[in-house]
From TrEMBL:
Keyword Transferase: yes
Pfam families noted in UniProt: Aminotran_4
Name of protein: Aminodeoxychorismate lyase
Function text: Involved in the biosynthesis of p-aminobenzoate (PABA), a precursor of tetrahydrofolate. Converts 4-amino-4-deoxychorismate into 4-aminobenzoate (PABA) and pyruvate.
EC number from the UniProt entry: 4.1.3.38
Keywords: Aminotransferase, Folate biosynthesis, Pyridoxal phosphate, Transferase
């Protein structure tokens, strides 16, 4: 299991960072998760563009160019083929680096700490499974469009969901749907596909963008607008999506059954379109 850490390729067990790293002390950094199918990173340019955007928003310059990132990612994939197989999930993290002491104010520009590691990706060809979600208040900050490594609220929310037997926490701010704790949310109502628009309240998912493209390509207009939680609970179909979960149907939210309680036709159609799009690239 090999990771990239600050220019070196080392065994995961030997990859160590300083206690003074600002990522460790302040969660001062950003990350990406990139799915890899049959050895190829999927939508990698889109993920890198989002990384550049997150870095820009926290005033960090990218330690590498796009082509350098691509080379690092490719090498991590290749080095882990024998450990994780050719469907992998690449985790990439950049922090503001190691300062001389623990102090909120950064003492000046520091060399960023860069980690790229791989794990096994299990989603893919397997059959769709209906999942259950719980609706919780979105207690996160107001810059959810930044893919920040500060995930305390997200982890508290999803752990609360899991402890109560749910697969995901779907979040709302004052009754308006935002997104899942680690996913975006779509719903289908009277044949119309809806999802909240990109804003500071959600992470603009790479999978979300792709699903919107795939819907349009198959003649389904996606309406990106505010969604009230009442509409969500009354929807015919709901799915969540992310790079590692692809399209996951939601068949119940708390004690409310969604639609017929079975995976809906549009959900199946878009999940199939996503698999077809992936296999065309392979
Ligand atoms: N929203 C949040 C809060 C996430 O953490 C994620 C990914 O994990 C997503 C949405 C989905 O983004 P993507 O499709 O780029 O994986």
């Amino acid at each position: 299991d090999t990771v990239f850490l600050n220019g070196d390729y080392v065994a995961k067990a030997n990859a160590k960072i300083s206690v003074l790293d600002r990522g460790f002390l302040f969660a001062d950094g950003v990350y990406e998760v990139i799915p890899v199918y049959r050895g190829k990173p999927f939508r990698v340019k889109e993920h890198l563009n989002r990384l550049f955007d997150s870095l820009r928003q926290i005033n960090l310059s990218s330690p590498y160019s796009e082509s350098q990132w691509l080379e690092i990612i490719t090498r991590v994939i290749v080095k882990n083929l024998n450990v994780h197989g050719d469907n992998q999930s690449i985790y990439l993290q950049v922090t503001r680096g190691i300062d001389s002491d623990r102090q909120h104010t950064v003492s000046g520009p520091l060399p960023a700490t860069v980690l790229v590691m791989a794990s096994k990706l299990t989603t893919g060809e397997s059959t769709l499974k209906g999942e259950k979600a719980t609706l919780l208040e979105d207690i996160r900050w107001l810059h959810c469009d930044i893919k920040s490594i500060a995930l305390l609220a997200n982890t508290l929310l999803v752990n609360q969901a899991k402890a109560n037997g749910f697969d995901e926490a779907i979040l709302h701010r004052q009754q308006w749907l935002t997104e899942g704790a680690s996913s975006n949310v779509f719903l289908v109502n009277n044949g119309q596909v809806l999802t909240p628009p990109k804003s500071q309240y959600i992470l603009g998912g790479i999978t979300r963008d792709l699903i919107i493209e795939l819907c349009q390509a198959s003649g389904l207009e996606v309406c990106q607008r505010r969604v009230h939680i009442k509409e969500l609970l009354d929807a015919d179909e709901v799915w969540i999506c992310s790079s590692t979960r692809e399209i996951s149907p939601i068949i119940a939210i708390d004690d409310k059954i969604i639609g017929s309680g079975r995976i809906g036709a549009t959900t199946r159609r878009m999940a199939a379109a996503l698999q077809a799009f992936k296999s065309e690239l392979l």
